[in-house]
């Protein structure tokens, strides 16, 4: 199972991060421990939503979509 997740920075509420992982709990802890260079400057993070996929390719495609311009519009409208 792969998870596509959306985080929001608590210190900078306009900052969001979309990611992909097999272990959501561990990955969130990693982000909040400052172990990711992309998210370390906006600590701490909270989980907004996540979706589970049994198909790894579909999970990767959805993560990629959420990082596009139309994916950003989708995120704003639905999350």
UniProtKB/TrEMBL annotation:
Classification via InterPro entries: GIY-YIG_endonuc, GIY-YIG_endonuc_sf
Gene3D superfamilies given for it? GIY-YIG endonuclease
Q: Which Pfam families match?
A: GIY-YIG
Q: Say which domain of life the source belongs to.
A: Bacteria
Q: Which parts of the sequence belong to the GIY-YIG domain?
A: 1-79
Segments traversing the membrane? none
Q: What is this protein called?
A: GIY-YIG nuclease family protein
């Amino acid at each position: 199972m792969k998870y596509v997740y959306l985080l929001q920075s608590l210190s900078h509420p306009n900052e969001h991060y979309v990611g992909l992982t097999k272990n959501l709990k561990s990955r969130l802890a990693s982000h909040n421990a400052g172990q990711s260079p992309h998210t370390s400057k906006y600590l701490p993070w909270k989980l907004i939503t996540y979706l589970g996929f049994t198909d790894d390719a579909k999970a990767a495609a959805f993560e990629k979509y959420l990082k596009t311009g139309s994916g950003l519009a989708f995120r704003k409208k639905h999350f």
